[in-house]
């Protein structure tokens, strides 16, 4: 039988069978698909990239740093601030009470900043460290900003049609082949502006996602929905960074007060967040016995590239900057179709995985 | 969370979640879909029926019994012969050695018959019993044909382009929207000729199926692939009917020899056949603890109706005859796409189901 390996463990077989039947190399198109061609990928829940599909967009052609400054001179924007580029990420938290360390789900400190301030900060931080470095994980719950806090404009609330409205005219209002195929308009169109210090941790969304690179590069690590048992989904307490003035010893002026970011557990009603804690870039840590079976799909987007990221695929995203020192992307999110077998089946894989991993503990 | 019920048993949740998110009433179109519209149904693995979609086909308009006799006057055709209309069906078998009865997978006796003989047999049998009756299950392994054996032309080897070639010009050589959407030609185009005594037992295929009613009616009971745990898949020994002359007592001329059908186990290499033994029309028999959760989708096809039967859906099919006493259908089968998550996920559901049901025994 095709793709029916005969191991003992159905979760293992699931990943192995999937790998046998599917390539882990992304399909590359050299022009945009028709609505029907797109729908075939949606039906297979399989990513593709259109190289240079958005190369002629006004955004891709014109969004230099100076031009953005001009267009958004008087705007304020919402910024996610973290010590290590770890907005919405599993993060070690050390309890001030008993000194024990656990993983929590760290949300960024969010604040409005003048766009000019935000952009200059990103760029000068990027240029200070010539070779982009992998953000280190925050290992304490209090971090001073002496080493430089990390900022990322990553609101996902349809920001390009609200906060960044002056830029919206520079991208298509819809992606025709996606709109026609999915028979709906995008639920959100979002702009992402960051530098190489931010990483989006592995997670999945209930959206069909058309992700378009404008400046710099994004590096996606993609895992199909069948890999649930590999990502070690764990219930994490939610915590949030907040700014705090704190004592520092040493430093340039021999100690004193400095602004820092403190990770604070959310109290009371704060429900635990089920979240993947396996990181495909550190495969030996927080792994399950299924993690080694996964064959991640790796794709780097260059300016003008468009990625179809199907609903429910796990994705981890890191970034490199343009020569100007920024990384800019726009994505179109469409509500997924919850009818058909895929959504209930993915819930099913999730509960079988969680039972299997609990049993093993 | 949408469609996430919180029972203990993931297999139960799977069926319940599916039912919450999907209608068990088939979608009805009143004209043929475009390739894109069709692809949306393929993506959702969801059936639909186009009422009267094939009403203008030459086959639908012209295939009277007399016209078929004229076209196929000199042809021989392959006929499946069974005592109870149970070709390829779970059937009780009583061992001649020890008298024990077990379910086996009964294949029909197959033989070539002049088309004229076959058709006359079907029709006169149908007209003898005015009100179509539900075929009774064969309960012994030897059945005389005194009550009338059941014949069904049901070869599924692309017969309309081979055995029945003279008829092929009366149907479209392809279904354009299916060919364009699936980007392939049909793997097989099959003709089905039977009467109300034949039933096709619940099973599933790895094909996308466009099923078109020409004369009479077909009654489909459809279950989605997520219902695997409900159908009680069981490994059955294969057996085949063969003709045999046997002694009969009584009867019109006070006993003598008569032709009968004997069910014979296949020897040796005959591998066991995993087959659904639950029958949604007799829900209390051979049920699993999941069977009662299933909400079958019922659809009757009238002449000219076209059904999209998605790959991997369980289907049981019974039939009613036209006033002329026959039931005729044509179907187009397209190889399914094994890429994407659906095929490995359905294999996964199957192995979890089989483990769960074994545990319960
Ligand atoms: O660009 C990023 O940092 C993350 C993108 C993402 O997670 C998404 O589009 O869903
Ligand atoms: O028409 C029938 O009797 C059965 C049809 C069927 O099983 C199929 O088309 O796969």
From TrEMBL, chains A, B:
It holds the Pfam family Cupin_8. Residues 160-349 form the JmjC domain. InterPro entries: Cupin_8 (IPR041667), JmjC_dom (IPR003347), RmlC-like_jellyroll (IPR014710). This is Clavaminate synthase-like protein.
